Amino acid sequence: MVPPPLLTEVLDVQGFNYHPESYDDAHRKFPKMPMVATEIAAAVNTRGNYEREKFTVPKDMAEYRGNLAQCHVAAYDFNAPYWAETAQTAWQEVIKRPWMAGGFVWSGFDYRGEPTPFTWPAVNSSYAIMDSCGFPKDSYYYYQSCWSEKPVLHLLPHWNWPDKVGQDIEVWCYSNCKQVELFLNGQSLGKKSMPQYSPLEWQVKYAPGTLGAIGYDDSGKVTTRARVETTGQPAAIALEPNAATLAADGSDISLVTVKITDAKGRIVPVATNKVSFSVTGPGKLIGVGNGDPSCHESDKGTERSAFNGLCLAIVQSSGAPGKITIHAESPGLRSASVSVRARRERNPADIISSEIEAFNRAK
Questions:
Q1: Predicted confidence band at 160 (pLDDT cuts at 50, 70, 90)?
Q2: Which three-class secondary structure state does DSSP give residue 153?
Q3: Max CA pair span of the chain
Q4: Is the distance from CB of 34 to CB of 12 less than 8 angstroms?
Q5: Is the pLDDT of residue 347 over 80?
Q6: Which of 36, 139, 186, 319 is the most buried (most CB within 10 A)?
């Protein structure tokens, strides 16, 4: 009796979900078959959280670091379920094998449900490169440093640690520079060669001020700089719409990033102020968010608490053209307003007609 073929033998491309230890064995058996990692990483992390408490949870065999009480995992690339890998481990396993076409990272955005490694009261996943509002996590810059040709230099954590003066803070740097030099309040803490596809790490005794970094190329030329600063207390709200012009079609939207800033306009990375929104003009508020995987505030309300300095308001046009103004306020903070404009879209037939007229006039 002839044994049935392996599934791989009838495929054009072999995919792998996690388990990089299986890559080599499959390649040995099918050396000419194209192979790709169809799902990798599933590293869990919470934007802006750098707590390092170690914990385990009943439904998982892995150890995590973060804040168990708040259902947050550290934004350092420490954490992954037992069946998955950290971002750097997952990508290193793909990139070191030239016969692997690449990998699809799970996931791009956090989403409702699958609150691994937690259960209720966590309500969102924490797998992603960006949180549920599209705000980048630190891993966003790790992947940039791996995939981008432009100079990348990103420091973590934030530099607001008033209860840790004189204590060691674990500082990471993601970069594609050849060397990186770290500074604290202008004093060099040394220059290090940048390992490829991995972070650089320092232990830095905390003092308030400015933590800065300089990236160098092969010749020693400075290519980029980065810094994080100790901020003041929350003082104001800043609004940044991603689209200044909307179609007046009743469906187009603008995503308005809401920043809690200090008196110098710097985002306060630990701010949790609750912000209330109102909209005037031919538009409406259709949603709010903050990226906190444990937040139970309404996504359809008119207010939202900031999470680590940020939240989001989503504004939609109505069917009429005109100026739409979004106003945001919070007790004790300077309020802010920003406007976007809804414009009537031109009918395609009118566009064609005007183009024909212009062509005829030019003849």
A1: very high
A2: strand
A3: 80
A4: yes
A5: no
A6: 139
The pLDDT of 339-361, averaged and rounded, is: 66
CB 48 within 8 Å of CB 56:
no
Q: What is the DSSP string of 273-337?
A: -EEEEEEESSEEEEEEE---TT--S-TTSSEEE-BTTEEEEEEEE-SS-EEEEEEEE-TTSB-EE
Distance separating alpha carbons of residues 293 and 47, to the nearest angstrom: 9
How confident is the model over 297-314, as a mean pLDDT?
Answer: 98
Domain boundary assignment for the chain = 7-146, 151-229, 236-343
Q: Which amino acid does the sequence have at 203?
A: Q
Q: In angstroms, what CA-CA distances link 67 with 20, 57, 73, 185, 294?
A: 29, 12, 6, 29, 11
Report the CATH fold assignment for 7-146.
TIM Barrel (3.20.20)
| Alpha-carbon span 171 to 161, nearest angstrom | 13
pTM, 2 dp: 0.90
Indicate the average pLDDT of the chain. Answer: 93
Q: Which two tokens stand for residue 264?
A: 């110098």
Distance, in Å, from the CA atom of 338 to the CA atom of 328, rounded to the nearest integer, reads: 9
Between CA 197 and CA 356 the distance in angstroms is: 55
Question: What pLDDT is recorded for position 360?
Answer: 63
